[in-house]
Amino acid sequence: MLDEVHEECGVFSINCNENAIFNSILGLHALQHRGQESFGIVASDNSKLHSYHFQGQVSSVFDDVEEIRKSLPGNHAIGHVRYATSGSKLGAQPISGNSEKFGDFAVAHNGNLINVSSTREQLIEQGYVFQSDIDTEVIVHLIAGSTKGNFLEGFIDALKQINGAYSLVAINQETIIGVRDPAGIRPLVLGKLGDSYVLASETCALDIINAEFVREIQPGELVVINPDGELTSVFPFVQQKSSFCIFEYVYFSRPDSIMENRSIYDTRKEIGKTLAQESPPQNNIDMIVPIPDSGIPAAIGYAEHSGLPMELGIIRNHYIGRTFIQPTAEVRKVRIKLKFDANKHILKGKNIILIDDSIVRGSTLRNVVVMLKNAGVGEIHLKISSPTIKYSCFYGIDTPDCKDLIAANQSIEEMTKSICVDSLAFLSVDGLYQAVKGETRNDTVPQYCDACFTGNYPIGK
Ligand code: SF4
C-alpha cells in the first residue's frame, strides 16, 4: 500500500518474567508496523507501577536497554506502539490512572472507540481533567470513576460504557488483563514463554521472544492473569456477531503472523491467485512486478497461477524513516524517489502487470507509474489484490475521508486515466472472501468487517 494507511496501534504484555522489560521491547519492535510514532511500557514490581515512554521507534532505544531496564523494575509489563490518528501526534501509551479504591493502573489500547466524544464530555462535566485526546484516557477515567468493588470489576464496568473496536491490555500492581471487543474487530493473541503468559496484537511478537502461540483471545473474551501466573477467562459482555477486520489479511498484519489459524503470507498468495483467476494477464505481458513490500505475496500468487515470471522491477530503499511522511502532495512526490527506484535494466521495453494490495488516494501510485514509464516500461496493467476502498474506517485504521478516497469518487475508467495505466482491475469482494475463508460473503451476516469496501459497518460509526 503506497498511500500511508496505518494501524493505529499494537499491544503487548508479559507476566512473571525476569526479562519482562527486554521481552516487551522485542515484542514491541516486532509490532512496529502497527505504529511507529511512539511506544511505551508500564511495569509492575508487585507493589508499584513504573512507566517509560518514547517518541520514536523502538529500535532507537536498543542501546539504552540497560537504562530502561533499571528504570522499570518488575517482572510484569504491558507495552504499546502507537500511530497517532485519534488524539494528538504527541503522547504515548500505556496511559496510567489512579483511584483511591483501585490504586495505580495503566491501560494500552489498539482500536478506536465510536462513542468517545459523548463519554468524554460527560466525564468533563463530572470534573475529570484530560491530559490528551487519546481514546484510552476515556477508558482510564471510566475505570478510576467506577463504583465497583475491585479493579477487575471497575475495568469491566468501564468497558460496558464504551463502544467500538478495542484490543486492550491493562496492568495494576498484581494483575494483567487482556480483552477483545465483543465484535473482535482488532486482533489479540495469547502465547506462553515458560511459565509466563504473553498477550500481543500479532503472533510475530511471540516469535521474536520464542514464545509459543497458545490461541487467539476470542471476541468479547477477557483474560485475567493473576500474580501467581494463573489465567482466568470470562465473557462479561453481551455477545455480538464476530466481525474481524478482513483488511488484516490484505495489508495490516505482518506476513509471518498467523490469524484465525491462517498464515497471512499464504493467504496473501491465495489472494493473488484469486486475482489471477478473476483478472487473467493480457497476452503480451512479459512479467509480474510487485510494489514492494506490500504487493509481493499477492504477486507471487498471481505469478504462480498465471505462469508468468515475477521480477523485482521496483527496488525499495528500506532506510527511509517516517520523517518525510507529510500529507502534502509535493512532499509525497519526493518521498517516492527516496523510497523506490525502478530496476531499469529488467524493465526497459517490457509490458508488465503491476500488483499492489490496495489503492487509497491513488496519488502515490501515479508517481510510481511515472517512474516506471521513465524507466522505459511499455504497457502497465495495474491489478489490485483487494476490492475498491470507498468508505472510511472508524475502527482503528487511519483511512482518509471519503472525499479523498479515489475509488469513492472515480469510476474504474476514470481511475485508469488518472493513474495513467493501460488497464486497472480490482479483486472482487467475493474473491477476497474466497481467498481468505474459502467461501463467498454472506451478505445477510458478513463473516468479517469489510466496511471500507462495502459500507456495511458492523457496530455503528
Ligand atoms: Fe478493517 Fe476496513 Fe473494517 Fe476498518 S472498515 S476494521 S479497515 S475491514
Can you give me a brief rundown of this structure?
With 461 residues, the chain is α+β, with helices and mostly antiparallel strands. Helix content is 29%, strand content 24%.
Number of helices: 16
* Backbone structural class: alpha+beta
Count of extended strands: 23
Which distinct ligands sit in these coordinates?
iron/sulfur cluster
- What characterizes the major β-sheet? 7 strands, antiparallel
Instruction: Let me know the average pLDDT.
Output: 92
Q: Report, as a whole number of angstroms, the end-to-end distance.
A: 24 Å
Unreliable segments of 5+ consecutive residues: 322-327
Helix content: 25-40%
Walk across the major sheet and give the strand order: 4-3-5-2-11-10-12
What overall form do the CA principal axes indicate?
globular
Please indicate the percent range of residues in DSSP E strands (runs of 2 or more): 15-25%
Radius of gyration, taken over Cα atoms and rounded to an integer in Å: 23 Å
